[in-house]
Amino acid sequence: MSPPQKIRLNKAEKALTLEYKDAEFVLPAEYLRVYSPSAEVRGHGIGEGTLVEGKLHVGIDRVAAAGRYALQIFFDDGHDSGIYTWDYLRELCDTRDEKWPAYLARLEAAGKGRDPDESTVKFIGG
Questions:
Q1: Mapping DSSP to helix (H, G, I), strand (E, B) and coil, where does residue 119 land?
Q2: Alpha-carbon distance 62 to 65, whole Å?
Q3: What pLDDT, in 10s, does the model give residues 53-97?
Q4: Considering Cα of 85, then 90, then 93, then 94, what sign does the dihedral take?
Q5: What angle do the packed helices 96-109 and 86-94 form, to 10 degrees?
Q6: Would I find Iron among this entry's keywords (predicted)?
Q7: Taking a C-beta distance cutoff of 8 angstroms, is the pair 88, 1 a contact?
Q8: Does domain 6-109 have CATH number 2.30.110.10?
Q9: Suppose 93 and one of 25, 70, 72, 101 were both cysteines; which one would form an S-S bond, judging by CB atoms 3.0 to 4.6 Å apart?
Q10: Cα dihedral angle (34, 36, 41, 42), rounded to 10 degrees?
Q11: Is residue 83 exposed (0-12), middle (13-18) or buried (19+ Cβ within 10 Å)?
Q12: Residue-wise pLDDT tens digits, 89-103
């Protein structure tokens, strides 16, 4: 997969804009953070991934090329170990309408939330 023709970081909007020949996508920092390709998030094997919570306010400090094949994103929560290949970035663009609701459903099922300043309390037996 080819890299985007343009990559723009909008810190105020907490989003990354990727311009391809055929389309333009705006990916929020929170979406990119919870779908980080890092071992910390994905795990080291099949099915070992971690459900990332509380990233509603996360931003992106900067981005940098990782060779000619990927982008490294430096998030303002200190996470910077994910290397987003051009193929994976395009996958995130093309599947956002499926991935984002699936993520929200996983959070809800786990009793977790997007906002780090809120917590969910579940009452048992009443």
A1: coil
A2: 10
A3: 999 999 999 999 999 999 999 999 999 999 999 999 999 999 999
A4: negative
A5: 80
A6: yes
A7: no
A8: no
A9: 25
A10: 120
A11: middle
A12: 999 999 999 999 999
